[in-house]
């Protein structure tokens, strides 16, 4: 089966309610992460015509604040396919009068699962017709190939303190007995924020997910152990590194790891933390790349014709 990138598009619209926001009245990051994975899972499942599992999420930015009563529109496309993996672009926009600025963007890799829960060939491909489709297909084929070594790593390196434990319940899945990636991200956003609070009590909001690698499935009945700590502190933001282990009938195993960035908003705006810390030198590189990309994304708006990401690539 072959489909053009444009023909894979899926749209989802959500209304932000009071229980979705943080103490500042803006959307809690855990909900956004869950909803982004929802949108990505839908478009990947539609192409694969089978169950899929989230394998990797790269540099997800919170570009525009979202508040109670806002209408948020999610759009997702399949932008590249390999043997058993599906690369997906998800964008969300928030209505602001007659404009719809980009709110978040996420790049994800899903894996098609067979009935035995193991990866199997996708059995479909995408192709480009328009100029923006060719731009995305070229970019994401290179991006996917560059991710190959990261998908095999168990990051971050080094020891981290144990922050908390969770028991995986049936409601944490959407099919079978494998934990849903969106639900895990919802929990991880909370626990990573706690790690930030442990470092220095403030009001933090999620600024970005720098990367998360999902290495092995988590099953219903497993006990999840989350290890997390602050590994970088800048002027107003800090990065939290985390690892996730699962323990159950398959023994104790490493299942995921990554980094999240939080901004100190105690003063109602980005507020100095009063100290700096560098445990991981690579955090500086991740921050520089993330800040530059977030700045570029703030300059693009909703278009019926093409994704905002294509417009950003064209400008770069």
TrEMBL record:
Keywords tagged on the record: Hydrolase
Ranges where the HotDog ACOT-type domain occurs: 6-116, 158-268
GO annotation terms (biological process): acyl-CoA metabolic process
Pfam families documented for this protein: 4HBT
Superkingdom of this protein's organism: Archaea
GO molecular function, a single term: long-chain fatty acyl-CoA hydrolase activity
InterPro entries linked to this entry: Cytosol_ACT, HOTDOG_ACOT, HotDog_dom_sf, Thioestr_dom
GO cellular component: cytosol
Name under which the protein is recorded: Acyl-CoA hydrolase
